[in-house]
Amino acid sequence: MIRVGIVGASGYTGAELARLLCNHPQAQLTVATSRQYAGKPLSQAFPSLRGRADIVCEDLPVADLAGRADFFFTAVPHQTAMDIVPPLLDAGKKVVDLSADFRLHDPAVYEAWYQPHSARELLPKAVYGLPELHRGMIGNASLVANPGCYPTGIILGLAPLLKAGLIDPDSIIADSKSGVSGAGRAAQTGTLYCEVADGFKAYKVGEHRHTPEIEQELGKLCGRSLTVSFTPHLVPMSRGILSTIYARAIGAMPDLAGLYQDFYRGEEFVRLCTAGEFPATQYVRGSNYCDIGLKFDPRTGRVIVVSAIDNVVKGAAGQAVQNFNLMCGLPEGAGLGIVPFFP
Amino acid sequence: MIRVGIVGASGYTGAELARLLCNHPQAQLTVATSRQYAGKPLSQAFPSLRGRADIVCEDLPVADLAGRADFFFTAVPHQTAMDIVPPLLDAGKKVVDLSADFRLHDPAVYEAWYQPHSARELLPKAVYGLPELHRGMIGNASLVANPGCYPTGIILGLAPLLKAGLIDPDSIIADSKSGVSGAGRAAQTGTLYCEVADGFKAYKVGEHRHTPEIEQELGKLCGRSLTVSFTPHLVPMSRGILSTIYARAIGAMPDLAGLYQDFYRGEEFVRLCTAGEFPATQYVRGSNYCDIGLKFDPRTGRVIVVSAIDNVVKGAAGQAVQNFNLMCGLPEGAGLGIVPFFP
Amino acid sequence: MIRVGIVGASGYTGAELARLLCNHPQAQLTVATSRQYAGKPLSQAFPSLRGRADIVCEDLPVADLAGRADFFFTAVPHQTAMDIVPPLLDAGKKVVDLSADFRLHDPAVYEAWYQPHSARELLPKAVYGLPELHRGMIGNASLVANPGCYPTGIILGLAPLLKAGLIDPDSIIADSKSGVSGAGRAAQTGTLYCEVADGFKAYKVGEHRHTPEIEQELGKLCGRSLTVSFTPHLVPMSRGILSTIYARAIGAMPDLAGLYQDFYRGEEFVRLCTAGEFPATQYVRGSNYCDIGLKFDPRTGRVIVVSAIDNVVKGAAGQAVQNFNLMCGLPEGAGLGIVPFFP
Amino acid sequence: MIRVGIVGASGYTGAELARLLCNHPQAQLTVATSRQYAGKPLSQAFPSLRGRADIVCEDLPVADLAGRADFFFTAVPHQTAMDIVPPLLDAGKKVVDLSADFRLHDPAVYEAWYQPHSARELLPKAVYGLPELHRGMIGNASLVANPGCYPTGIILGLAPLLKAGLIDPDSIIADSKSGVSGAGRAAQTGTLYCEVADGFKAYKVGEHRHTPEIEQELGKLCGRSLTVSFTPHLVPMSRGILSTIYARAIGAMPDLAGLYQDFYRGEEFVRLCTAGEFPATQYVRGSNYCDIGLKFDPRTGRVIVVSAIDNVVKGAAGQAVQNFNLMCGLPEGAGLGIVPFFP
User: ipTM surpassing 0.95, yes or no?
Assistant: First the structure.
């Protein structure tokens, strides 16, 4: 059994990591940190975990943390992560960081969208943890930057097209819709039930911090830099992200279904819809799947890709466990066999 | 008092018309038809109307209908409307038709997207009932084709930009999200609570029948034909449509806020968000407002417009009453003073 | 026009008062206080009110408040209200207080369930503002204590039975279910969307502070003191309270429908369901109605009453306006003609 | 591996059985019947199961069914089950029937609440499948009648109290609240999203068919017949049942927590809340748990028990698998290790 720690266990992502680890055959949760719930069982913060993850939360200094586990998931806000990750790596631990701090390779880009970076020297070592694209590098990494929830679905949705050079990289528009859990468990008026229910809105139009991450990874796929229009929206649902992605086709469009089947052949967590069908977030709920549907519209000359993930699983904790498995030489899907939960 | 009839009163649109007419100072509901609820009070179909709209539904032949009111709202499916509207007009009645049957000026376009049209001769007389754009013609019309719910928000969102020639007409992408009431009250698996709740999906990608209607009206605004990418989505909420609309800017972009303020000055039912703010469907719920927010993104050179309406009010029954008011020489906002209902 | 002030305008109840006053023919909102939104238009706190209630919020000392209006709605938390109401009364103003501070006649009971009372001398003057039971006294009052949301539906549901002596007062169990708006707009984890959605729970079992208020008013109806079992629950919906009330029948049960029709004859805001039908909160949404359904179950000898209200309207702001109308000699339903909003 | 068949696979219960069997270590789904989806993969009916349960549905005569599996779950409506179960038993198969047809021991009671029974001779053989109460008999049974969703939570909630003789059996009131999945996947207006969302209602007040089943099992526990008041309600959520149960205490009340801990010691699927805490359906979602909270209210002399289950799991498919495990000599929790899914 690999001893595993969760730093920041009392947020939604931390709790989801705990849920997944309950059923992981080779991981044992040995330490969970939380300032707010220090001294209390994690199952008090999340009664859903009663009897399953009753581990007592601790508020530990980083120095005391490293000895408590072999592997760490850091599920803390950006800017906090860059202080916690380096000492864990120094102590010889492997880390999957779920914040944004190690996702962007270029520190200047990071600092333009976030704030100054205090661990720039780690950026070249950090691997962007999207297994379907970077599996080999992840297997050899000590530090994996777990992708953002929005980028995960958008990058997986576009990868085959961009790689094949079938769309104009400057024409990409990603219109994404997320459940409310993406906003976290902090008390704030904007995510109260009454503010969100029976409503729908856009937010951070043209300004969301996942934009440079999307552009970085799409740029790798097409071999040059690009800009995308990315608009996130808030859906009155707890979980799920659906992205509707538009791009202008270049030249004649081949069989899209075949292209995607080839690209994702053997992938355990990518499911392709049959022709004419499109994914829905309710069909991936609770699971690590990314479902993808495709359409070429000859009227407008645009390709439309729709991808759906559970933002808390494939968009966060599940992908983190997938990376953990790769980094530890375990079967990639260990602990991730959850069948989507519907209705 | 003007005697008013609703043909097809037991759907969501019919019931909403009844709700609005309850508080209309110069309209009296004198006949309501429904096959399913014939012989029963409308308030049995919709207990919300108990004590307010207890009129008994009837299943009347068209021949007997005309004498029962001076003005008719036809809230029946397309293809049915084209049989009912002509005899009402022949009897000298005025009609607002809420189906798609009289919205498209070109019968060939209608027949390409729907089915054969049996009342082509009426198409030249029918006025597209978007008051903010066609107020004068509506005032003189006997037959007004009430716009579709999606087109209403999209056309109002783009009109100032297209009219001013500031965007490339061929670059328009409208990504729209609708509440479930748009699917009507017919029993079907796809709109059951458990199928829709806590989920989000796209549907009829690149194939929705509101597309030609959007293209027709946007084409009038820019003076030439165009195609748009239009993708509707289903949101787990009862009411509301939010459209996120993308277009490529042409040349230098002037002050967008000023442009829209000028264009919509004096409009009772268009509200512009302040700079940096965007609309949300929960802020127009139950009302006849269309709220609009704007952004020019210099990184991508695109303009992003977000519009929000209540699909059952401004997208259907409310706009129909607005047209009724104009056709009858009443104040345009009569009966439509409902303040949005939040939370 | 009567000049009206709202003290505490930026909560859900304050905003709902503003919404209702927009359409009130004889009231004009002249002052709205809010610490959080001082200096900003109320429509910034609630964009739904844009263009309808753009009054700028102020953070005013009580001394400066009285001169700004003739009538006040105090929509502040209990314990705060007892400081604000006395000076307003001293200045000759009439007040509807929406807190719990003046609902209980016996200060000892108040202090047992809340905290010490600093304005005990006002308790004998305060009238419990349930118009259907205390209309005459309300008309003559300067201070009306607006009933709690739960008590409103429970008391109206039981009044005819208790008054007629048909049920055992010691057998009453009220199982109530409320929408989330009852918890207010303050940021707290427990009412975040993700905590509430797709879930259901009981809270404050046997301990909710509305209990003594229910017992006081039911006691008046049957002429003796009693205790009730009252359990509130949280429903994943924004608005509405449905109470399912059980009581043991005494002797032979007469025609319940007739009893209730007689009791509530002429009441504008009580609607009785037809036999075999029961109310639903979605049929009173946004309106001032209390809908009531009835059943005598001979198998168990119990009567079951189900009542439904919109907690923000009949359970708070709407009933407050109803009281305002009575206190000012206006038609009781002025400004309250809203038809319930469905779906 | 045990070959397992699901008769009626395209309803919510059938799909949930398929979901659970995907992760069952010793069961293999070898046949799934559905009239509506005959010839199509089950994952077309439920895209959530894509890649996991792609078994093709068949519309098979009962005669051809028996040879296809060793064990059957019959998830068909009552009255249909009584035709299908006997031939399966005659063929030597074991069956868990999820309908109501074999739950009531007394055919007269069954026929009073349902319709005539055509397989009365099987009633003495059928075991009521609540493992926590009837484990031994279930292990020896060929036919287990899987309990109704409402009875499961109510019986488990009251069992320790009734067994200990601490409450008056004639005073029991069970006020239950269910998610919408309990109504099934058939298209009907009453369970459309727009009819249910943002609303709450009671239904079948005093008339629900689960009443006699509750009375039968509670009667066994206290050793005499009784009647209960049972009121079901519809909550705008997909899954979950919470029951709030009231009963009059007899004599001095001992330590309730201790009583329940003793009664349910070693039970894998019953979780007791700590004192002062109460369950919520969102904390058992997707799992086979029944969570229970307790309160004795000295003011009223009543005990209040609150129980929560996922109606599709512990209230149907999960309990069925639990029974299957017992009937086949497998570990009781095999395939049921799902951690509740929150948020």
Answer: yes
